[in-house]
Structures are given as structure tokens and as C-alpha cells.
Amino acid sequence: MDSVDTLKLLTSQMSFEADGEPRVTSPAPTCFSPKERDHAFAHPAQLPNGQKILLLKTLLSSACERDCFYCPFRAGRDFRRATFKPDEFAGLFSKLNQSGAAEGVFLSSGIAGGGVKTQDKLLDTADILRKKYQYRGYLHLKIMPGAEKDQVYRAMQLADRVSVNLEAPNTERLAKLAPHKIFIEELLQPLKWVEEIRRTVPAHKFWNGRWPSTVTQFVAGGSDESDLELLTITNWLNKNVRLKRAYFSAFHPIRDTPLENKAAVDPMREHRLYQASFLLRDYGFDLEDLPFTSSSNLPLHADPKQAWAQMYLADKPVEINKADKQELIRIPGIGLKGADAIMNARRINQLRDLSSLKKLGVIAERAAPYLLFNGHRAPIQMKLLKNTKIFYALHPTTSKIKKHQTSC
Which of 4, 6, 93, 366 could pair with 333 in a Cys bridge, judged by C-beta atoms 3.0 to 4.6 Å apart? Predict the structure, then answer.
């Protein structure tokens, strides 16, 4: 198998790993041979910082000695595996990068010979890219379970982003997914090391003079955990290790694994977890604000921000011309940029109707039921408010929503 075939195989096995928002496959560059042009490897992605990038997501090796119950790479599973040597991959990626086929790379690996040995190979690859090929673009390196602190430090010197997949929210849940991984020592500890290093080593000593960001990923529904468990650890990571983002991957069964007969998780659950995690990270919400059901999960039918607003703002709408930023960003349809636009606009003139909000980029129809314009609701709001209450009456999934409906 030549390098192109190896890359084709390894990139095809990375769909479960998240970094940005992949959209469509990019065309292969014309400088490649006909065989190479048959395959495109990188995907347009928008990273959490808003940067748009053509990102190659791949493995250094799909050989793995671990036997995680959900993983397509688990030891003993019968499928075709492939491995790159560090210099081989670095040379191939440099060719892709110089041709414009890939601007950034996210590099992970199966574990062979232990986490320390595998991490060394990832670091060697990154070192060759940065030094031999003078690659200065985006690099995301995976931290392997069992990696040492010095290896974490070196990864931080080479990468724009480092990540550790926690997979589950705690030790008990991880045992149902990956019985031979150790939650605190192998997975959580490296994230703590990253933050410890950021607090003790100046940023100018790292790549491009900045500390790398950190992310993690969870297999949502793989260990029968609740949304509350996932969001509790996410909230802790946001506050204690400055996590840039938590990714959630809705569980789906893989043939020839111990969980192959477990039902797939509704993708909407993944979507609701993302929405709730952004509320915790960016919008000043606490766990107690989220509309968990009696089973400690988020309702699938309701946007969590909308559900909160229906509970607390439907009968006490916010005065658009007086609200501060924290009040504004809790209103559905108003994001961080929208709140800034509102505050800037009303320094010049008071906002009088929904059309003035639309001009500012606000989703006025979503915000309307929860707003007052100088003490008055917009005419359209009464109908919207009535329809919203009817919707929640038909979907009484949370105890908080039920309580609010009774008071109405």
C-alpha cells in the first residue's frame, strides 16, 4: 500500500473525531497524479475561533492495543489497518499543504506499544513538520492516554491545539466504554497538566507565542450517562482547565464490537448538548438554569435557551432599551454579537420595533415573545407568545416547565 492509499484509509477512519465543522470534501489539486486526484483528503472546517480552514483529519496509525467497547480501532477487531512512519506522513502532508489541498492538520493515532511510545511518534511527526518542512499552519495534536507531562509540554510547544478524549464523564461511566482506560490518571490528568503549564510558563515560549487551546470529546449515550453528568464535567473543565470546547459525538454502534447491538443515540441529543454547553461557556448560564427532565436529560424537542426563556421571561419580558448585556444574551435570538449591536445602536436612538432588531442581525421572531419596547409588546408578540405556550403545553417534558405552565 503506497502513501496515498494509506492516507485514504486512515482519513476515512477519522469521522468520529471532531475539530471544527467539516462540510464537504475538497477537490484534489491538479498537481497530483490521476490516482491521487481520485481521492480528496481535507475538508473545509470552521474552527471555534471563527477561522475557516481546509483541515486534514487523520491517524498516524489505526493499529491499537486497547479494547474500548465502542471503538472501530479496538484490538482484535477484523478490519484493514494502516500505519505511517513520522517522516513519511510529514513529507506527504507537506506536499498536500504546498499544493493548497490542506491548510491544517489534526493528527491522532491508535495506541501501539503504550501511550508514551505512541506519543513520541506523534511528537516526532510534528517536529519534522515544523523544523524540516517549515510548516507554520494549524496543527492539532492528540494527547495519548498515559502520556507523560514532558510529552504534554512538548506537544504544547509544537501545536496550536491539543486534546484528550475523556469519552465519558467519570470513572464509573468510562468503565462501560473503555474498561482499561483510567479516567483521572490517564485522561483528566493531562488536561490539568496543560493548564498548570499555561499558568507557570510564559506564552512566548510556545508555538507562535501563544498557549495552545485544549478540547475534549465525549461519546454521548455510549455509557448510559445523563446529560447532567456530561454537562457537569464540561462546566468543571471550562472553569478549571480553560477548555476551549467540548465536542459531543452521538453514539452509534460499530459492527464487531461489544456494543454493536446497542441502539444508536438520536443526533438531536448531540445538538442539544452543544447548545447547552455554549450557554454554560459563553452566556453566563449555570447548570441550575438548564431545563433538565426528571431523568437528568435535556428535552429533545426544546432548545434549552428557549425553554429557559419560556420559564422565566414569558411573563416578565425584558425591556430592550434598558437591559444590560447579560440580560440580552439570555433572550432567544440574541447572541453575543447581537447584544453588542443592540447596546451600540441604542446609544444613538431607542429601539422601537422588531424591524430595528432585524437590521442588527437579531432573529427578531425568536426574541419577540420575551421583549418590551418602552413598556409595550410588539403587536406580533402576542400571537407568538400564545403559540409558544401552546407548544410547551404539548411537550411537558420537564418539571420546571410543568410548574411554569401551571402558574400561567
Answer: 366
